[in-house]
């Protein structure tokens, strides 16, 4: 069928009601958001953001309501979609934006693609990777992996991806989303090493929309975390990483077929791991317990 592209959509969307189909690749994926309220009677008050791209640039795509439980887990980073009968709206100004792996890619920030169950009912097709043709000009997923030796030189709030061997994972803890709120964030602390420093990555991992992965993080697994934010503003000045709205977490059993397996820093980490003694690494691992961070000073006078 006749296709359009994201750049053409941005120029012509106000003058059209119906749009030609789109062929795009998912580059980023947000956590699933629940926006239900007791006074509003909605069956499926869910929403999820994606950043999708074609040869012309990148744009936000929003999955609404009952389409979320149907499609959210099938729409992975790297998935190619054919979209028809979608809607176009002005962008929501307060949403978060991931940091693109390709800094040269053009971002169309004024509008977003809306996928709805009606008005109009969107038609979504997933194109298997082996059927994707080079002439379609779809961009590859790119990452911003860093090593532990590079972390201390990065500024506060810098966005990055990391891979490491888990040496510590703490128990799941809860923090109130707001003071006096009944809603909580669920999170856990983890340490991961990559052989480039004596220090581990300190990771604050919030439960994203991947409960199966979050619950199974354990020592000696290869852990990949994408779209992490560098945090340096704490009393001990120790740099650690925390998840963002667009973070994805992967452990053993989830790596196969992920786009990051082609990344050079991921390959060099795997090579380092193959040179290590598993028995020696197991002796250094810890699981569970309370992890106070940032750590209090070692004397009361400093405190």
TrEMBL record:
GO terms for molecular function: single-stranded DNA binding. InterPro entries: NA-bd_OB-fold, RADX. It comes from the Eukaryota. It holds the Pfam family RADX. Transmembrane segments: none annotated. This is RADX protein. It comes from Pheucticus melanocephalus (Black-headed grosbeak).
């Amino acid at each position: 069928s006749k296709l359009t592209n994201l750049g053409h959509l941005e120029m012509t969307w106000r003058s059209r009601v119906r749009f030609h189909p789109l062929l795009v690749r998912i580059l980023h994926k947000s956590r699933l958001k629940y926006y239900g309220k007791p006074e509003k009677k909605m069956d499926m008050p869910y929403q999820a953001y994606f950043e999708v791209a074609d040869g012309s640039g990148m744009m936000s795509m929003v999955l609404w309501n009952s389409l979320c439980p149907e499609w959210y887990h099938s729409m992975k980073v790297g998935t190619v979609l054919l979209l028809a009968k979608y809607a176009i709206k002005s962008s929501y100004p307060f949403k978060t934006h991931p940091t693109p792996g390709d800094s040269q890619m053009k971002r169309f920030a004024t509008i977003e693609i809306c996928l709805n169950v009606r008005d109009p009912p969107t038609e979504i097709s997933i194109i298997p990777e082996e059927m994707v043709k080079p002439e379609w000009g779809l961009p590859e997923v790119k990452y911003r992996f860093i090593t532990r030796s590079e972390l201390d030189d990065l500024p506060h709030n810098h966005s990055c991806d990391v891979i490491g061997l888990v040496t510590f994972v703490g128990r799941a803890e809860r923090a109130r989303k707001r003071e006096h709120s009944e809603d909580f964030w669920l999170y856990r602390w983890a340490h991961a090493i990559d052989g480039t420093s004596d220090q581990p990555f300190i990771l604050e991992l919030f439960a994203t929309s991947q409960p199966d992965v979050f619950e199974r993080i354990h020592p000696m697994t290869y852990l990949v975390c994408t779209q992490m934010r560098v945090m340096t503003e704490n009393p001990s000045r120790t740099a650690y990483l925390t998840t963002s709205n667009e973070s994805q977490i992967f452990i053993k059993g989830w790596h196969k077929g992920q786009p990051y397996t082609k990344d050079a820093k991921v390959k060099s980490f795997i090579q380092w791991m193959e040179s290590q003694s598993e028995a020696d690494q197991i002796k250094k691992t810890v699981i569970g317990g309370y992890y106070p961070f940032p750590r209090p000073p070692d004397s009361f006078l400093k405190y």
